[in-house]
Specification:
The structure is a single chain. By secondary structure, the chain is mainly α. Helix content is about 75%, strand content about 0%.
Length: about 500
């Protein structure tokens, strides 16, 4: 479980007695990072996450450390301790990523995802596909409390159905992510929801009810866009649908029995079993199904008659199954745990950069500038939104962004007489939902890897995530249900 105490991110005693870097100085590592990332993207394109972005993050970190040690007398020990703390906090996240890799491989090879795709393309209408996808992911995420689990399971299957219906993968990914993050925000089982309420001292269910005022209108707008785009686009290709159903039925043993695994996974989620255990248990169950229904595929993957060897490769390595159709082959191929290693590598580098910015005091220096701009309700909420987004860009992790945003603004909200629930809601509207839009953020990296769609490709279509920060500011302008008491 995450350490919800905000003192985890406090500066060490040594750092407290040094001068805080000037905001313009604090911008130097950020500018270096952005410059390196621009070069990396220009040179490597979609392959930038395979190493180039990691180098950019380490270069930004090196600049931050060098400036702090040379001019502000921050010791290397301070950086080292903060990096250790930060990486320790994301250790469970890294294990979850490995289990997501196991799950993706096992659900595909066992026939679970192919079965969902096979029946889904026949039942779902192309005109209503995007809207339906958004609603399905919202419901699953609301029940599970995890956008990551939702996207890695039903999201992958829906992306396959979208391929078969000839729907743009960017639009489909946007609908999946929009629905998953809506459910994640309003679920009492969600880590980020619990974290935002705890970090601001707000009752969990008070926080959830107050979020509905911005979250539900935003979700309705996103649904209108998805349904309208489906109607304008018209029907999909029946030939393409026929290719998918024929190719899948010829390659996999399509059976409704495979759907017992998603059903049992849903029961584990309903019983509030931790995500790591759910993902691992679901992978094991899928492995049993693969041994029973798809032994021929396990032998093909192994390259021998050993199904056990094929089972192990299914979990940890890349799998490629020949369906007879190139487009379908790409869809049913998976990377297993090994496919998550670039993402894990990137997360480690992003966390190191974020830790260096925190330990140096540069994050604090930059955010204090934002706090000084606060003059009214609108500027207060806008500054909170801007800080949450800024921290997602600079620290690379939504959990750090939520905690730091709450730390920075808690006293300001109290001094100006605003309820803590306004701060907790604004943290979620900014830090939680925008994390998936940042390519080097843990969420952006993970979801682009799981779905196989680059972050910058799906970003313009994540309407819920894009509109949530704006809705938070609009509601602040209107003043709807925002109460203020005398701070004295």
């Amino acid at each position: 479980m995450l350490n919800l105490s905000t003192d985890h991110y406090d500066m060490t005693e040594e750092n407290n007695i040094t001068r805080r870097p000037h905001p313009l100085v604090a911008l130097i590592p950020v500018a270096v990072l952005i410059a390196f990332l621009a070069v990396v993207i220009a040179l490597f394109g979609s392959d930038s996450l395979s190493g180039g972005s990691q180098v950019a993050l380490l270069m930004g970190m090196a600049v931050c450390v060098s400036i702090s040690m040379a001019f502000y007398r921050v010791s290397w020990h301070t950086f080292e301790m903060q990096i250790k703390k930060t990486l320790g906090d994301v250790s469970i996240t890294l294990l979850i990523l490995l289990c997501v890799g196991m799950l993706a491989g096992s659900w595909m090879v066992s026939g679970i995802v192919p079965t969902l795709i096979y029946y889904g393309v026949q039942l779902m209408s192309p005109q209503f596909f995007l809207g339906s996808t958004c609603i399905i992911c919202a419901l699953v995420s609301l029940l599970s409390g995890s956008s990551w689990t939702t996207i890695a399971t039903i999201g992958v299957a829906l992306l396959g159905i979208g391929h078969a219906l000839d729907v743009s993968e960017a639009w489909t990914a946007g609908a999946i992510i929009s629905g998953a993050y809506f459910g994640d925000k309003l679920s009492p089982l969600s880590d980020t929801t619990i974290l935002a309420s705890s970090a601001t001292g707000t009752d969990l269910f008070v926080h959830i009810r107050y979020m509905m005022l911005t979250t539900i209108p935003t979700f309705c707008i996103a649904l209108v866009i998805f349904f309208a785009s489906g109607l304008v686009a018209g029907g999909g290709s029946e030939v393409q649908t026929g290719v998918y159903t024929e190719g899948l039925s010829r390659t996999f043993n399509i059976s409704l029995w495979t759907l017992l695994v998603p059903l049992l996974t849903g029961l584990l989620i309903a019983r509030r079993v931790p995500s790591l255990i759910v993902l691992f248990a679901s992978s094991v169950m899928a492995g049993v199904v693969a041994l029973i229904l798809q032994p021929h595929l396990l032998r093909e993957i192994a390259g021998t008659d050993s199904v056990v060897r094929g089972l192990a490769i299914m979990y940890y390595g890349a799998t490629a199954v020949d369906t007879g159709y190139e487009s379908l082959n790409e869809l049913v191929s998976t990377g297993g745990m090994a496919g998550m290693l670039n993402t894990i590598w990137l997360i480690l580098c992003a966390m190191c950069f974020g830790a260096a910015m925190v330990a140096s005091g540069m994050i604090d220096s930059l955010t204090q500038v934002i706090v000084r701009w606060v003059r009214s309700r609108v500027t207060l909420v806008s500054s909170t939104v801007g800080t949450g987004i800024f921290l997602n860009l600079t620290t690379g992790d939504q959990f750090i962004s939520i905690v730091l945003t709450a730390d920075i603004f808690k006293q300001v909200y109290d001094e100006q007489g605003y309820e803590s629930r306004l701060l907790s809601r604004t943290c979620e509207d900014a830090a939680t939902v925008t994390s998936v839009l940042v390519p080097w953020n843990t969420c952006g990296m993970t979801q682009s890897t799981v779905l196989g769609v680059p972050t910058l490709t799906y970003l313009p279509y994540c309407f819920f995530n894009l509109l949530s920060p704006l809705m938070s500011i609009i509601v602040a302008v209107i003043g709807w249900r925002i109460r203020r008491h005398d701070p004295n």
